[in-house]
Amino acid sequence: MIRYDILTEIAPILRDHLVICNIGIPSQELHAIDDQPSNFYMLGTMGLASSIGLGLALAQPKPVIVIDGDGSVLTNLGTLPTIANNVADNYILLIVDNGSYGSTGDQPTYAGRKTSLAAMARAAGCERVIECAAEDTGRVLTEALEARQMTVIVAKCDSGNRKMPVITMDPVVIRDRFMKAVAAGG
Amino acid sequence: MSIDARIVDDLQANGIEFVTTVPCKQLAGVIAEVDARPGIHHVPSNKEDEGMGLCAGAWMGGKRPCIIMQNTAIGVTINTLATLIQYYRLPLPMLISYRGELREPVACQVEMAVHTKALLAQLNIPTYHFHRQADVEELDQILKYTFMCNKPVAILTDASFWGGYGDQ
């Protein structure tokens, strides 16, 4: 399974929640699979999805799911101690770990070699860390939502991308409709 | 009232409830004050671009943010300022210790000080420079301006403003 297959499988779970989606092809794939006002697509700024999601989770009570990648977490490794030490039980960080920088030509990351992001998250102090196979992502994500406990999921999958159009929506439109979804009742 | 308490009073009077910080010796007092206030959620960051991500999320979640950092961070955060804060049009007051100005004891700090205003100007970031302690009188209006225009706004605070950190 590649990232696109995971996103297709979990889209019915994501659509009811606030989602912060990583820069590049992950956002393009999610946008193509199931565009929702409750999806915040990052159009730039490599590495900050997990930080934006944490700020959002700390500021309001609805569950927040961050779709991140191994490459972008490696770019912003300081995020793991910040997540661990500022516990938000409405926060789920889903790291789709395909061992490569998918948006830039599938160059290998260190997460595909010796480095374990799950072990790093645990060492940072994150208490609920689950590494799973790609096909189990939907179940693990559902369990994380039910647990109502801050969770880091590392979903191991194959490297590869679907060819998707770039997102042409204006960033202020993405942000505005997302904020309305945040503020909406229920 | 201490200058630190005065600054944090202004933050709170402008509805700021979420503050992230990366420390600087010059900012130690104001960071301690932020940490002590019950109405402020203080999340220390490991790096300033991470902190700006936190602030972006907090604002979208309904809480007015502020980042407190050193001017060396301008070198770290240019991409984040351009592609996140400015591109999505997010308000972000940046209370910045302006190291490398008069009364600076550490020579290396001057190397970023000479670039600080030029970089902020290149990014079209409204910039205010607090040099004398009375300059703090403008902080309230600067914060109102920031949340009026939804831009990052820099408040550079130098050693003279803080009463001479580094005077040997």
TrEMBL record, chain A:
One function term, GO molecular function aspect: carboxy-lyase activity
Key words, A-Z: Decarboxylase, Lyase, Pyruvate
A Pfam family that the UniProt record links to this protein: TPP_enzyme_C
Gene3D superfamilies (alphabetical): 3.40.50.970
Gene Ontology biological process terms from the UniProt entry: small molecule metabolic process
Coiled coil: none
CDD domains cross-referenced by the UniProt entry: TPP_ComE (cd03372)
Positions of the Thiamine pyrophosphate enzyme TPP-binding domain: 41-154
Source species, domain of life: Bacteria
NCBIfam families xref list: sulfopy_beta (TIGR03846)
Official protein name in the record: Sulfopyruvate decarboxylase subunit beta
UniProtKB/TrEMBL annotation, chain B:
Superkingdom of origin: Bacteria
Record's keyword annotation contains Lyase: yes
Single annotated GO MF: sulfopyruvate decarboxylase activity
Bilayer-spanning residue ranges: none
Keywords assigned by UniProt, alphabetized: Decarboxylase, Lyase, Pyruvate
InterPro entries xref list: Sulfopyruvate_deCO2ase_alpha, THDP-binding, TPP_dependent_decarboxylase
Alphabetical list of NCBIfam families matching this protein: sulfopyru_alph
UniProt name for this protein: Sulfopyruvate decarboxylase subunit alpha
Keyword Lyase listed: yes
Species assigned in the record: Ruegeria marina
